[in-house]
């Protein structure tokens, strides 16, 4: 049932190219995006002037990625909030507010409560869930199903990637309906997004050794930092959650620019810092942040773009991923981080699929 893999997590990580392909199948028609399940006309979508992405845990991290895309492609202000906070405050909601609720299980108590609250206040709610007919699907105005299929490991991997790809499509749709993206731009983005399936396949085939080497370097650490900027910051949060969830190694994510505002005090000889240093407009800034950490003794594990030889001067271990546009870097860069957390967990003798104290779905608040 594990398909020859030692655990479900590894099996599910390897299903991700298929998830990307299935999530994109049939979504581009005559040069424009089609997401009929959303049940909103192009005019209604055009009127949206505020977006909230509401979710918990890993799904919240998919939301952090979406915020960057929605704001840059659709130019609509987007806030991402954990559902347990959103439901107990008084957010600004009008009839032109779109609430996007993201939940793998479709039954997370806080996310459901947030959906109900948002609808009472007059917002349109889109659900993004992996479970057909789940409460999130039933109680939202429209729903996009991530095509992950059943996820057994408690740690979300393939469902996270399905969420990121679905939210990327939604951001493109909003960009299209706001008149911010041309048909040509949508087509180009879509085809590059589709290419990530093969790129993830390649990462899975090629990064085992570099991931293992990096895992060996951090297996005995008490704590680790994950840093990045922009899309890389969003990716770091998920990397750190995965690490603490299954390996019990304390890991925190920070926007790299925050290092000197506190976290750099943690760095001493051998302290692991995992840096997302893929190609982007802020690449040089990330490099200078990791140099600052390294100067204080940090052991740098960098996720970088293939062909970037220079990064080897600044990092102790490098895990390469194929070159993609920055907008799609979370899709590729997340994969080695999933493998890294699993490798550390295995080396530490942890139960990868069933981490202590956690349940696959959280139906009580
Ligand atoms: O089913 P949901 O997406 O609503 O679940 C949200 C979180 O409980 C979930 O993502 C959790 O953080 C996972 N264990 C992450 O791997």
Automatic annotation (TrEMBL):
It comes from the Bacteria. GO terms for molecular function: glutamine-fructose-6-phosphate transaminase (isomerizing) activity. It is found in: Cytoplasm. The active site is at residue 360. Keywords: Aminotransferase, Cytoplasm, Glutamine amidotransferase, Repeat, Transferase. Residues 41-180, 214-355 form the SIS domain. It catalyses: D-fructose 6-phosphate + L-glutamine = D-glucosamine 6-phosphate + L-glutamate. Its EC number is 2.6.1.16. It is an enzyme of class 2 (transferase). Catalyzes the first step in hexosamine metabolism, converting fructose-6P into glucosamine-6P using glutamine as a nitrogen source. Homodimer. This is Glutamine--fructose-6-phosphate aminotransferase [isomerizing]. It comes from Adlercreutzia shanghongiae. The gene is glmS.
């Amino acid at each position: 049932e594990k398909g020859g893999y030692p655990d479900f997590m590894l099996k599910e990580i390897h299903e991700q190219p298929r998830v990307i392909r299935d999530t994109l199948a049939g979504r581009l028609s005559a040069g424009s995006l089609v997401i009929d399940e959303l049940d909103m006309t192009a005019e209604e979508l055009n009127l949206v002037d505020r977006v909230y992405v509401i979710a918990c845990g890993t799904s919240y991290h998919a939301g952090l990625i979406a915020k960057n895309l929605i704001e840059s492609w659709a130019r609509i202000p987007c806030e991402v909030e954990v559902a347990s906070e959103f439901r107990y405050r008084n957010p600004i909601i009008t009839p032109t507010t779109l609430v996007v609720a993201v939940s793998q299980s479709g039954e997370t108590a806080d996310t459901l409560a947030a959906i109900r609250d948002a609808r009472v206040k007059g917002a349109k709610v889109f659900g993004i869930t992996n479970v057909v007919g789940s409460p999130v699907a039933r109680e939202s105005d429209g729903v996009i199903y991530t095509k992950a299929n059943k996820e057994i490991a408690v740690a979300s991997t393939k469902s996270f990637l399905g969420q990121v790809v679905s939210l990327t499509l939604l951001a493109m749709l909003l960009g299209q309906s706001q008149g911010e993206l041309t048909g040509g731009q949508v087509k180009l983005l879509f085809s590059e997004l589709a290419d990530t399936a093969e790129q993830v396949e390649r990462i899975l085939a090629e990064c085992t050794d570099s991931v293992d080497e990096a895992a060996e370097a951090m297996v005995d650490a008490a704590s680790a930092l994950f840093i990045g900027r922009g899309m890389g910051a969003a990716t770091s949060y998920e990397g750190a959650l995965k690490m603490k969830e299954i390996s019990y190694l304390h890991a925190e994510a920070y926007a790299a620019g925050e290092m000197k505002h506190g976290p750099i005090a943690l760095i001493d000889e051998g302290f692991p810092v995992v840096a997302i240093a893929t190609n982007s407009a802020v690449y040089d800034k990330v490099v200078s942040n990791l140099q600052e950490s390294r100067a204080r003794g940090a052991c740098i594990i960098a996720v970088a773009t293939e062909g970037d030889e220079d990064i080897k001067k600044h990092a102790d271990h490098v895990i390469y991923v194929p070159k993609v546009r920055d907008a799609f870097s979370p899709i590729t860069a997340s994969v080695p981080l999933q493998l890294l957390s699993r490798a550390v967990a295995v080396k530490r003798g942890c139960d990868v699929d069933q981490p202590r104290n956690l349940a696959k779905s959280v139906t009580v608040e």
